[in-house]
Amino acid sequence: MDTRNAETPTTFNKEMIAKVWDTPAPQKARVTAWRILRNRLPICDNLRKRNIPMVDEEIMCNMCFHQIETTNHLFLLCPKTGVVWDEIQRWLGVSAARPHCAVSHLDFFAHLGRGKKSQKFLTALWICIIWLLWKRRNESRFEGKAWDIKNTIYDWGCESKNVELEQNFQAA
Ligand SMILES: [Zn+2]
Fold first, then answer.
1. Which of 44-58, 70-84, 107-121, 140-154 has the lowest mean pLDDT?
2. What spacing in Å lies between the alpha carbon of 150 and ligand 1's midpoint?
3. How remote is the CA of residue 172 from the centroid of ligand 1, in Å?
4. Are the C-beta atoms of 129 and 158 separated by less than 8 Å?
């Protein structure tokens, strides 16, 4: 079954969406995560499906320029953003293969922690990372800023690494 990103949410989607709201992540970040899990962000593939006119170059991922920009590509499968998840998994000491859809990825990521407190923290971390990736994508697409992986990792690291991770995360 892979209707998990469909706009009509499955029970599983609803459970994951409820978890998104039940975290201390910033409100704007939670709204972005909710839109991703419902596939309602203005991703190029979604705009095209709504018959919004776009030239061929516009629908391509502006990180790698090799694939059409879809939700799952942009946030998970693109080599440029995939590096961010690789780094985070390395930092957490986990080397498992990642699911290729956003809802399953959130579930996977949250369960890298043991216990409800760790899982809630990792859900919040996932939301913040997704939000940061979306902001970076928009800066790249609309302001011409270069995608800078080091700064992206540094930004989330500064916000979470030393402050909360050690208190909240226990590896599974
Ligand atoms: Zn890409």
1. 140-154
2. 17
3. 30
4. no
